[in-house]
User: What shape does this take?
Amino acid sequence: MNFLPLIERKREGGRLAPDELRQLVADFTAGRIPDYQMAAFLMAVYFRGLDRAETTALTLAMRDSGETLAFPKDPRPLADKHSTGGVGDKVSLPLAPLLACLGLRVPMISGRGLGITGGTLDKLESIPGFRTALSATDVVEIVQRVGCVICGQTERMVPADKKMYALRDATGTVPSIPLIVASILSKKLAENLRALVLDVKFGTAAFMQTLPRARQLARAMVELGNACGVNTRALLTNMNTPLGCAAGNWLEVRESVACLEGRGPDDLRELVLTCAAHLLVQTRKAPSLPAARKLAQTCLDSGAPRRKWDEMLAAQGADLGEFHRKLALDHTAPVVRELKADRAGWVVRCDARCVGEIVRDLGGGRFTKESAINPDVGVDHLAKPGERVAKGDVLARIHAADSEAASAAHERLRTAFQIAPCRPRPEPLIQGVVTGSLR
Ligand code: URA
Assistant: This one.
């Protein structure tokens, strides 16, 4: 295929036919299109965009660039959730076993953290023995037997996205809505789902900083997901403040277990139950959102999802004895330091971006894809906006590898907080729902 005329057409704002996009993806995946030409094409898309038909064709071609998951017939619908990423976002961990207990099958293919946003796989790998690298056969077997799995993309799934994302990352073409939609949905469509809920975040630590941009991305994904036969909805959620009270890989696993045991923070529980309720309605396992919410709440409070979590861990190779021993410890990092309020008042800000940067710099996140992660560092006991504090109360605990890192984090963490004499107006966590209909 001569790729140059396609680059030139897109550069001039023209349209590409579905067959042309299919061929382009196949040739690029097979190494028949050099990176410099693909980079030029991606930049043309960044400036000129793709229309609905082009985005659909690109997404389906990317999905079909590798293996997809094939599940046996089963009355339990296949469902999943995807988040655009944030600080302290651990929703997937309690949600997967909850959904499995509610009668859904959950093949949750997740990613790693980069920059300030945490990655589900990095969190799970802080559990002794837990394996995130599974073959497609393992994924299907565990989903059929346990009801849920959380793992990485298999080597052979959606290879076009792996190659394209690496190029986008190196050429400043990540923030393009059609390219984001194709990248995210090609991976989710490879799971052969019946229903998908997207958690599209906006705020200081989100990919999309403003609510209108997040809504634009959510609408594009919901429309395309439904057009491809997956009942898709999106929640628009606030990422100006970290989710929950902990950020850092192992600390977030602990908080997820607390959520499964009914002890977790309210905002985390709220988002877990809301995602579950939408998926129950989308899969017709509940007639309405209030009924679904009740089902999800009763199930979470029954303790069954906590037991299912251990079952999923064991199926993915975790050493449950070691896991429970680690869970019983107050902390696993060598140094723990408290940040205390220097005045009394109301917490009006706990900035997610600042907290995310501190956790990354403590060693809990990555600067590049190759960076090693320290699973034990991070922050917990975070005071959240709307909380009243007295002078000397703990605003956060810092978990660090050594005292120098703890001191540096301590200085910076103070700037994440603002304490004022008046109670702030509450900022709702969930600020919109985007629904669509199957076509
Ligand atoms: N996450 C993805 O998987 N792809 C994107 O393009 C952006 C975020």
About this structure: The mean pLDDT is 96.
